[in-house]
Amino acid sequence: MAEFDRQRAAAPTSTTHTHEIDAGLRSYMMKVYNYMALGVAFTAVVTLFVASNPALMQAVALGPMKWVLFGGLLGMGWFAGRLIFSGNTMLAHLCFWGYAGLWGVLISPMIHVYMGQDPGIVVRAFAITAVTFGATSLYGYVTKRDMSALGTFFMMASIGLIVAMLVNAFFVQSSMMSLLVSGAVVLLFSAITAWETQAVKQMYIHGDDHGVTQQKAIFGAFMLYGSFITLFIHILNILGIMRE
Asked: How many domains does one find in the chain?
């Protein structure tokens, strides 16, 4: 009887601890999604700014600058973990907002062309992207299946698709190949979004200090932002090719 009383007395403490973890996890994930949403909004602002400056947009679209920007994006993606978890929160912010800004500059010519032809297609692409991202991210958050083993496959598949895009851009220049590649990218990054969401969720540790939690939230937003913007670009490309 005494043992039962001790267990019953301990139960509220355990339940309270679980509630604290759940509340902390929800707060952490909301911070991740808020940062990501602000990153998307910042990209839109940069895109509109560049698109309103014809000389700058022409330099991005026709000059070697686009390859410099593309190289910068790949470099930031590769070193993001080291920069964000350097212990300097300001550097983490600079990495994230710089990444979002680079994307805004890089996609501005594409957005400008579609806005001039059919502004509705950009809105539809964004809406489809938001629904796709939301559904796959929700799956990654709630699923009990461990997807960590898929990381290597996703990396190799991403490299293969980048090579395919470069080959098509420089040699084949086929709309059909572009459509197929974009379809494959959408399928791949839908799965990557779920995998990344689970990974971001698992990074949370109850009891981390504010600085560490902040860096984890920024890194999580960095990961999910990259998937969102990639989905948007290729969904827009698919709609554009189908429209033609």
From this structure: 1
Q: Is the pLDDT of residue 12 over 80?
A: no
The per-residue pLDDT for range 62-118, each reduced to its tens digit, is 878 888 888 888 888 888 999 999 888 899 999 999 999 999 999 999 999 999 889
User: For every residue of the chain, which 3-state class applies, written as one string?
Assistant: CHHHHHHHHHHHHHHHHHHHHHHHHHHHHHHHHHHHHHHHHHHHHHHHHHHCCHHHHHHHHHCCHHHHHHHHHHHHHHHHHHHHCCCCHHHHHHHHHHHHHHHHHHHHHHHHHHHHHCHHHHHHHHHHHHHHHHHHHHHHHHCCCCCHHHHHHHHHHHHHHHHHHHHHHHHHCCHHHHHHHHHHHHHHHHHHHHHHHHHHHHHCCCCCCHHHHHHHHHHHHHHHHHHHHHHHHHHHHHHHHHHC
pTM (two decimals)? 0.89
How distant is the alpha carbon of residue 159 from its chain centre?
17
Question: Do 220 and 97 form a contact (C-beta atoms < 8 A)?
Answer: no
Range of the structural domain that residue 146 is part of: 2-243
